[in-house]
């Protein structure tokens, strides 16, 4: 049976869906950290390919591929603009020198491409985990890390209520439009004032909703008992512990290879201010 | 029947405030990016409406208001920039620090969020650009550390961010504080006298 996650429906037999929240969160952190540590283009390319293949291997649908590509393209052009116009990375060939001292060399292009791969691998890794995560996983994940359950409650409420508030925002704005407000005309300041009115209404709606939820939680005895019990139990299996330890070891290995061996460093240039 | 307000029940309600207003800030972030996008900057907006919200929320609810901004920014920027470690470390952490700095100024100079006197306004006008500038420096330092921008872009990014965020806070935040503070003060959730 498929399971509803933050983004999509994922096959219930996907190994990532069945994973305990502890290795899931560790995987999310380690993918991002490893991508941050690596600065060499080929290992980053391999990491990006490996993460892309993981979607297929772990039976996670690559939802909204078009949107994903757009996000990567927008981020890529931001990186390219920054490096092509404002960097001075020495290389064997200089293609263009600007009047303000920056120049474009072969290494500029390689470094910019590497940074795009870094960003893409982080995006792929985070999407892979969050596409298989439910709001329940966040609650139980926080419990697994021995975090206060109020933190889990905050995160879960924020994720769940965002879509409700989007609808509220549209409803309030439409009501104001029906009463003659025009959000597409006027200067930025005038439009900002109109939006301030929308958000004042939203704050009132939110405060009312807080009271409703607070009473519902109090009626259910939330926080009444000193020791909290859970309806569902996520059992931490040996395989979960092994995966978690392997991921931590992977991050440490990448760190040693980058900073002590120099294997994962960018060849021939050290970024500095 | 009157409600018995205990420390535990207030703490729980403040946690709900962070969660619910996190949803409001995420909505504001989504619409800010859609309404006034910044070309070339993924997940960026020329008019960051949630900033006005979490500055006001932090002056009302302290740490829990800042947490709402933190969670809201992370969720709101996600669809445009990915829910990555970088987005958490720059935008979300920066948006957590900035309103707390502003609140520290208000506490230090004993200013009132209702903005009744000239001194209240002076503290508001000075603390917001300082807080947003410090947050901007942090945010762009993180982007620089992740290799997304160069140091040249860091300088321009800090200037643009400080101006854009301060404008949003001044235009929408001032109205929110003037209109809603009196009402929020009557609720048991209003936090006075402490930073966190």
Map the helices and strands.
The complex is a heterodimer of chains A (273) and B (196).
Chain A: E1 3-4, E2 9-10, H1 15-18, H2 21-37, H3 41-57, H4 65-86, E3 94-97, E4 103-105, H5 106-130, H6 135-144, H7 149-178, H8 188-219, H9 238-261
Antiparallel strand pairs in A: 1-2, 3-4
Chain B: H1 7-35, H2 49-61, H3 63-81, H4 85-108, H5 118-145, H6 151-185
Helix pairs in contact in B: 1-2, 1-3, 2-3, 2-4, 2-6, 3-4, 4-5, 5-6
Give your account of this protein's structure.
- The complex is a heterodimer of chains A (273) and B (196).
- Chain A is mainly alpha-helical and 273 residues long.
- In chain A, 66% of the residues lie in helices and 4% in strands.
- Chain A has a domain at 138-236.
- In chain A, strands 1-2 form a two-stranded antiparallel sheet.
- In chain A, strand 3 and strand 4 (103-105) form a beta hairpin.
- The N and C termini of chain A lie far apart (53 Å).
- Chain B contains six helices and no strands.
- The model of chain B has no long low-confidence stretch (mean pLDDT 83).
- With 196 residues, chain B is mostly helical.
- Chain B has one domain (2-185): Arp2/3 complex 21 kDa subunit ARPC3 (Orthogonal Bundle).
- Classes of the chains: A mainly alpha (273), B mainly alpha (196).
- The interface between A and B is large, with 71 and 60 residues.
How much is the average pLDDT of chain A? 82
Number of helices of chain B: 6
Spans of at least 5 consecutive residues with low confidence of chain B: none
Approximately how much helix is present in the residues of chain A?
55-70%
Descriptors:
heterodimer, A: 273 residues, mainly alpha, two-stranded antiparallel sheet, 4 strands, 66% helix, B: 196 residues, Arp2/3 complex 21 kDa subunit ARPC3, 6 helices, 0% strand, globular
Gist of the model:
The complex is a heterodimer of chains A (273) and B (196). Chain A is built from nine helices and four strands. Chain A has 273 residues and is mainly α.
């Amino acid at each position: 049976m498929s399971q509803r996650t933050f983004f999509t429906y994922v096959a219930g037999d996907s190994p990532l869906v069945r994973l305990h929240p502890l290795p899931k969160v560790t995987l999310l952190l380690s993918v991002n950290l490893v991508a941050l540590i690596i600065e060499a283009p080929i290992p980053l390319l391999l990491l990006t390919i490996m993460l892309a293949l993981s979607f297929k291997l772990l039976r996670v649908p690559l939802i909204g591929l078009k949107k994903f590509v757009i996000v990567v393209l927008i981020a890529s052009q931001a990186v390219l603009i920054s490096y092509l116009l404002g960097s001075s990375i020495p290389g064997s060939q200089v293609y263009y020198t600007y009047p303000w001292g920056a120049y474009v060399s072969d290494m500029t292009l390689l470094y910019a491409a590497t940074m795009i791969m870094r960003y893409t691998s982080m995006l792929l890794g985070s999407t892979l985990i969050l596409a298989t995560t439910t709001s329940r996983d966040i609650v139980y994940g926080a419990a697994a890390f021995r975090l206060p359950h109020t933190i889990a409650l905050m995160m879960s409420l924020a994720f769940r209520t965002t879509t409700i508030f989007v609808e509220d925002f549209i409803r309030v704005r439409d009501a104001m439009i029906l009463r003659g407000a025009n959000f597409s005309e006027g200067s930025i300041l005038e439009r900002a004032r109109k939006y301030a009115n929308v958000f004042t209404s939203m704050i009132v709606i939110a405060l009312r909703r807080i009271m409703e939820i607070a009473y519902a939680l109090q009626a259910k005895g939330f926080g009444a008992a000193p020791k909290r019990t859970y309806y569902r139990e996520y059992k931490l299996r040996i395989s979960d512990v092994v995966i978690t330890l392997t991921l931590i070891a992977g991050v440490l290995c990448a760190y040693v290879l980058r900073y002590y061996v120099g294997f994962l460093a960018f060849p021939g240039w050290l970024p500095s201010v | 029947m009157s409600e018995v307000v205990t420390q535990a029940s207030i703490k729980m309600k403040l946690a709900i405030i962070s969660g619910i207003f996190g949803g409001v800030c995420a909505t504001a972030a989504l619409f800010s990016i859609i309404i006034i996008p910044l070309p070339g900057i993924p997940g960026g907006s020329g008019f960051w409406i949630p900033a006005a919200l979490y500055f006001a929320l932090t002056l009302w609810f302290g740490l829990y208001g800042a947490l709402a901004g933190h969670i809201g920014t992370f969720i709101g920027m996600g669809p445009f920039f990915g829910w990555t470690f970088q987005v958490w470390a720059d935008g979300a952490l920066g948006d957590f620090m900035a309103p707390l700095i502003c609140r520290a100024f208000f506490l230090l100079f004993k200013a009132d969020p209702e903005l009744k006197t000239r001194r209240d306004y002076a503290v508001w006008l000075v603390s917001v650009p300082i807080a947003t500038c410090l947050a901007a420096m942090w945010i762009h330092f993180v982007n620089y550390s992740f290799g997304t921008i160069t140091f040249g872009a860091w300088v321009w990014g800090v200037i643009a961010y400080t101006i854009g965020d301060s404008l949003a806070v001044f235009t929408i935040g001032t109205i929110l504080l003037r209109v809603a503070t009196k009402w929020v003060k009557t609720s048991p959730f209003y936090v006075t006298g402490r930073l966190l």
